[in-house]
Amino acid sequence: ARLDDVFLVRDLRGLRDILAFFKSFDQSFYSKIFRMFLEDPKLALSFISETKEMRKSWLYQYHKRFSPKKWREGVIARLADLEARERSKRQQDRNLEGIIAAGIDFGHVLFRKGNPQLLEYVDQKHKEKSFWGDV
């Protein structure tokens, strides 16, 4: 990609505008958001729009004025919750695939047709899969 590419410049400006709300966050937060954009743009955009809406809530006010500190803590807690949910969902998918693969492996061994070692394949596949929360 070239820096004089109109679409790239437009996308970078859009990303800068979106992330303008998160000026006071650390590098780890930005890394997770960026990886989330790469892996699942819908999830990233819904997270960002949700955090923008959080700014309007009375929960993030101090003496009836917006409190950036409370909001930042809320956003980080929301990101941690989202990360835990995504990890749980991925683990459930891995467990289901593992059960199916183990059943197939067992069936092949039981009927003396050799062991296709699908369970090892599933384990390897899930180890190689990247996750935005691992940044």
Largest sheet: 2 strands, antiparallel
Q: How is the quaternary structure best described?
A: single chain
Stretches with pLDDT under 50, minimum 5 residues? none
**Structural class of the secondary structure composition?**
mainly alpha
Tally of structural domains: 1
What is the topology?
Blueprint: H1 6-19, H2 27-39, H3 41-54, E1 61-62, E2 65-66, H4 68-110, H5 118-128
Antiparallel strand pairs: 1-2
Please sum up the structure shown.
This protein is mainly alpha-helical. Helices cover 70% and strands 3% of the residues. The protein has helices at residues 6-19, 27-39, 41-54, 68-110, 118-128, and strands spanning 61-62, 65-66.
Describe the structure.
The structure is a single chain. By secondary structure, the protein is an all-alpha fold. The chain has one domain. 70% of the residues lie in helices and 3% in strands. The protein has a two-stranded antiparallel sheet with strand order 1-2. Helix 2 crosses helix 3 and helix 4 runs antiparallel to helix 5. The chain is elongated.
